[in-house]
Design goal:
It contains 7 helices and 2 strands. By secondary structure, it is mostly helical. The protein has one domain. Strand 1 and strand 2 form a beta hairpin.
Length: 210
């Protein structure tokens, strides 16, 4: 890793700490706490949320006609999402142990929690579940692909990527033939930062609720 990449990595870690502080401030503002790994609101907050929930008849009446018309097309994408989920899971289960690549924890990317919000009606909850699954599967597949790429082709592109994946900073610079030929085996096995690392635990406080 070059000095520029090391500095960038430190900046990213600093930004992550700032983000964590911001999240803790939001937690206090919206009156929820983490209990056994789940976000819990105070009873007073839950009562306020229920008052803001839009009824199903009103929600459907106020929906745009084109939104209703295109709904079957949107929900039909669950089929490729589910197939992608299945094939990626089978792929990494079979192949990653053979190549010494740490498996990606599916639950780190596919998260269901927004559907528990009491100010959402049934349709809004379902939509949140659907979006959580679709985007979660894409993120899950991206991380599996990223670790695969690190093993088989850890070389950066000549062109700047708009959204490089999580393993990209480990890759060799484009055209650096010397480093590639000398250190390819080191880089393709460099997963120490993700081995047996659990996702950051949410902050805890004393606010109670359900």
């Amino acid at each position: 890793m070059t000095q520029i990449e090391a500095d960038l990595s430190q900046r990213i870690k600093s930004l992550e700490r700032e983000l964590q502080i911001a999240l803790e401030e939001k937690q206090k503002k919206f009156q929820y706490s983490w209990i056994r790994g789940k976000a819990r609101f105070t009873e007073a907050t839950l009562s306020d949320h229920r008052k803001l929930k839009q009824s199903l008849p009103t929600y459907i009446r106020d929906s745009r006609f084109l939104a209703i018309l295109t709904a079957p097309v949107i929900y039909a994408v669950i089929i490729p999402f589910a197939l992608l989920d299945l094939f990626v899971t089978v792929y990494q289960t079979v192949c990653f142990p053979i190549y010494g690549i740490p498996r990606v924890k599916r639950s780190d990317h596919i998260v269901y929690d927004r559907a528990h919000l009491k100010y959402l009606n049934l349709i809004e909850r379902f939509n949140c579940l659907y979006c959580s699954y679709g985007n979660g599967v894409c993120a899950y597949a991206t991380e599996v692909s990223a670790r695969t790429e690190q093993h088989w082709c850890p070389i950066k592109h000549a062109r700047r990527l708009r959204s490089p994946h999580s393993r990209y900073t480990h890759f060799f610079d484009y055209g650096d033939a010397v480093q590639y030929s000398q250190k390819i085996e080191i880089v393709r096995a460099d997963f120490v930062d993700v081995k047996d690392v659990a996702p950051a635990a949410p902050p805890h406080d004393t606010i109670q609720g359900s």
